[in-house]
Amino acid sequence: MALPLPTKCGLDGGRAVSVCAGATLVQASAARLAAIIVLVFALAQGVFAAGVAATVAMALGTALTTGVIAALAVFAKSLALRIAGGRGATGALAVAGLELLAAAFVLVLGASLLIGLWTGSAAS
To answer: Which of 46, 69, 84, 107 has its CA 20 to 30 A from that of 75?
Structure first.
């Protein structure tokens, strides 16, 4: 089952609110599981206060990262619309070029991580 998009949730979106709430719960569970693992490990080591501090730091880091990524996405969309809006075909070509450049960056980053994984496991 594919997770629903946020715009498709709600009373007018065609999906039940319970489906969207379940999707949100599933997506947020990974961070909570990591926090539970940190807390259990800290308790086992006798440094529960450090585990609580680490969990709070994880939560703040997640909130900050999510906020920054959302702000950048909104800014990038408005910038792309501004570039493409007034220039016709030239703007559309510029946006397509930026998208191609971003895709190439992601490809190079993924390839470098894969190569690093292969060479790291060979060295061990």
So the answer is: 107
* pLDDT above 60 (res 108): yes
The DSSP symbol for 47 reads -
pLDDT in tens, 44-101: 999 999 999 998 898 888 888 878 887 887 788 777 777 666 667 777 788 788 889 9
Angle at 9 between CA 3 and CA 10, to 5 degrees: 155
Residue whose C-alpha is closest to residue 25's, from 13, 42, 48, 9: 9
Q: Are 38 and 51 in contact (CB under 8 A)?
A: yes
Contacts of 84 (CB under 8 A, 6+ apart): 91, 92, 94, 95
- 51, two tokens: 């585990």
Locus of tokens 């070509």: 93
